[in-house]
Amino acid sequence: MVCVIVPETLRKYTPFAFLERVCSKDYLEPVTGTVIEKGTTVYISLHGLHKDPEYFQEPERFDPERFSEENKRSITPFTYLPFGDGPHNCIGSRFGLMSVKCCLTHILAEYEVSKRPETPFPLEYSNKSIVLASSGGIPLKFKRVVAP
Q1: CA–CA separation, 81 vs 16, rounded Å?
Q2: Which pLDDT belongs to residue 73?
Q3: How far apart are CA 134 and CA 7, in angstroms?
Q4: HSE toward the beta carbon, residue 72, CA cutoff 13 A
Q5: Phi, psi at 112, each rounded to 5°
Q6: CA-CA to 29 of 20 to 30 Å: which in 15, 42, 68, 135?
């Protein structure tokens, strides 16, 4: 279950808002006819991609099944980029994913996790952070379900 929850969380709550790339050659944008010149910095909106209903049906709904073995093949290439892609993708993506999956598995095997009365919903995001972050944290309640 963690193998579908983590990617859906990264889609819905993408840590970085955008990717930055530099255009390597002049490019004619076919719809508008705009020329993007070589050397121009281009920003790719990850939030825009990950929340676009053209690529992810009901994008505001948390649906881990989008990333099940049978469904993930239908995701349009280059529309899910939590770690970027190509030669400039995040070098630590595999380690990061494996670490998060191991930690979550360990926590969920021993604790019942729930939100507390003071947990804001919907979450309020900080406008003072370069990464997506809750402005007041996310208070959670942990109840041990397995004896130590």
Answers
A1: 10
A2: 93
A3: 19
A4: 12
A5: -95, 125
A6: 15
Model pTM score: 0.84
Residue that has been written with the tokens 């193998």 in this structure: 3
Strand partners, 21: 42
Reply yes or no on whether the pLDDT at 128 is more than 90. no
Query: How many Cα atoms within 13 Å fall on the side-chain side of residue 98?
Result: 4
Q: Is 140 exposed, middle or buried, given 0-12, 13-18 or 19+ CB atoms closer than 10 A?
A: exposed
Residue type, 143: K
Asked if 89 contacts 95 with a C-beta cutoff of 8 angstroms, the reply is no
Where are the domains positioned within the chain? 2-106
Q: Is 90 annotated as a binding residue?
A: yes
Of 105, 92, 70, the residue nearest 15 (C-alpha): 92
